[in-house]
């Protein structure tokens, strides 16, 4: 499909400043914690300090006596109507998952799990009384180390008998999409090259700016929950499915939400407890977590071991890839926790033509914070693995890393291309993005400088890292989700309402939490209907307004939700056409719609769509039998995923005396198809890069040997700010997507997916000369220095330890 | 992040503050800029019954000259110290170090004296004060005032020579006019506490180091003066090789911490590299 009319795209492609930013940056926004209701009570959570322990007694008597305390609840008080937290994506029929109640009955399974809730008339009184709840624990051995956990050395949930939750396998020979990977590997062992690596995906904390917050109002016929969530529709469904309240009695509102990055794609014990307690007490309640609570109890991301075997010919043609993944679920299987690594299964082959592929993922329960989606969700891990492997293979063969990639990637004339993982890539041009990126980056000059620094033994060495990534986004074709045993579809809904005054209300089922939908969607509608940008109002995030929807994650809002919007707008035009014809006393066939105006072919006569909307409202003079409405809705289910791609180049200076890394240059050329608002896209790319770079260099959720989160505050969990990053050199190439009308591709996760391997490849490129083959992420100065020292020691024969760190 | 309840007073004079301290004793905590105390209260790591705010005592703020010394009021904010022309002229090491404290918001609220009294070994104000031989003026009960040398001020982790019923009022810094200065701070992200940092002030004439002052941040439970290195540098040419040799033993006898940013041995290695760089830069190299 292509855009069929030829009028100028006045709004699409324009650098509009975000209309939502005025309220967001001047403090006139409405976050959940800003909501104050009459008689509202406050909750404070009592959390376990132990990773794994039996609860032997809870004494709430002192807390109950405290001033302004209304109630204290423990698991013993809960009944069926408290519900459970659901896993919506059981990746295999035999997946093992512990029941996840809002409060555990008698055993805590991660440090930070809630064991009691205090309800008081003020947040301070609740907090004070929470300190008075006396919980007796018998500490149990905890399953903490992922590799030990998969060996069932200590059980995270003894009742399950194992920590192994599910084993999910894809094999190209079995699927008929490619050959036998074992054959490819053994052929390469005898006459070719085999690269074997084991990479660690560090555990990350989403660290959204607004901590999670929930308010529940149980008064009135419908119960209302406000939540700082990405997924109000999913929360509503899950409340209905597990707490016995009919869906039609539940209203969930995500008001202004301050970031999520996947971290608010969850149904949480805090929400469920607030829901249940409000219903018990018939009073509104609020809970807002502290930053410390957010870091220990909101879900984490990544945390995998990746065992990888890449087979290739001596000429650098990849012949097979085998991936053996161990993924840490944490203590519970979160809403899509098991599915996150499975999303990666389709991306290890990336932009390359790999003839044989085998992927196996073992998900594992441990006594750590649960894990789930975090920006990229499965795809950054896959991209990291393959882009590291390709650079390592180039190094092994003494080939230029670009030459090796080009030898293996899908050429632009080969699209659409069906990959070894079974996906059909609709469009792309890796040659163009790469050529452009090399040019902007000044690749040859930087290589020359690198050589000079090497020759002069400069203490500061330069490294250049490459990542030619692609990803699958725009979740998702419902049929594909069904085939993967996901619990819901992937469609999206939109409606367009033409108001009497000529204003346009657009309702989307996506749920923005910082993305700028109000602006970008206004631009689409302004273009499509030919109305002023200012006349478009975008409504979202309230299930009583946005009655259908599947929310925002997986870079889906524009490519799926935006397409629903386009289709709804086109229906409005079609419905308005006979009205215009009637009012203009012309035949419908002679009516043309262009730039917001219905005109009669060959005449000057015409009416604006806003005038038609006014006429429909008054309904004084409509065609016989026509209903007085030109409002329309559309539900769009994509037929395919969406495949943005790009070439990212990173240059770092490594201070070999300290291990300190200084980023010198970061250039990216992303192909995200047609762009609605370049300013928003740039913001998404920059923010995405920052988070991907953070995984490579800074962020790490570290637990001690008893399972306590050591990096539990921003003193130790290092989130980079603008002061730590350079000005990114971000550009675009464009091959429009063929699977949506606007030709757009997702951009929300691209920067995060692409940047991590580019950075680590750059660091390794600087220090490979010292015999370094790998540095575990985050590449801290201490690790980089140790790797260099160990590599040098091996070089000079003064130590026998390996160079790997 | 709600602290436990406490009573609060903001006296207008040092005498009133001291009287409150005497009255409440152990139950009281002093708040200066609050950049260390407030997080502790909000995390409920401490729950004092009484908080005495020094923010209303005007005479504790500002920088003045007094003969050969520069006098910095304890309640002068980091940003005021960092931007003060007298400090830049006579104690450039302090200007440079203080400018690296945390971020702009913290520097605008946090105070020089508050940070010294808090005595976090990873903080950036202790080492330059120690290097320049600052003296600490401490007010006690009954109008008593005593002065403590920098060498005696820092006692241990978060512990100084200030008594329980005393207040730090001024820091007297001997003028180091015309000295080169550099604070070499090693962090992973900009607003982090120092992993290791080195404060160096150097008096160099004709390419030769005539005197040097060097102190280390976060290489032990207190800031550490590198006296042996100072002596080794004296009379040496201000060249990289000479300095490298003179500072080689800077980490000897130190006891740095091990944490997520690196172990003690790595910190000892860093101290060497950073001291060389700090001295070389301070010497104009």
UniProtKB/TrEMBL annotation, chain A:
Keywords: Molybdenum, Oxidoreductase. One of its GO terms (molecular function) is oxidoreductase activity. Residues 1-14 have a biased composition (Basic and acidic residues). The keyword Oxidoreductase applies. It holds the Pfam family MoCoBD_2. Residues 26-141 form the Aldehyde oxidase/xanthine dehydrogenase a/b hammerhead domain. InterPro entries: Ald_Oxase/Xan_DH_a/b, Ald_Oxase/Xan_DH_a/b_sf, Ald_Oxase/xanthine_DH-like, AldOxase/xan_DH_MoCoBD1, AldOxase/xan_DH_MoCoBD2, AldOxase/xan_DH_Mopterin-bd_sf. Residues 1-20 are annotated as: Disordered. This is Carbon-monoxide dehydrogenase large subunit. It comes from Flexivirga endophytica.
TrEMBL record, chain B:
Residues 1-178 form the FAD-binding PCMH-type domain. InterPro entries: CO_DH_flav_C (IPR005107), CO_DH_flav_C_dom_sf (IPR036683), Diverse_Substr_Oxidored (IPR051312), FAD-bd_PCMH (IPR016166), FAD-bd_PCMH-like_sf (IPR036318), FAD-bd_PCMH_sub1 (IPR016167), FAD-bd_PCMH_sub2 (IPR016169), Mopterin_DH_FAD-bd (IPR002346). Pfam families: CO_deh_flav_C (PF03450), FAD_binding_5 (PF00941). PROSITE patterns: FAD_PCMH. GO terms for molecular function: FAD binding; oxidoreductase activity. It comes from the Bacteria. Keywords: FAD, Flavoprotein, Oxidoreductase. This is Carbon-monoxide dehydrogenase medium subunit. It comes from Flexivirga endophytica.
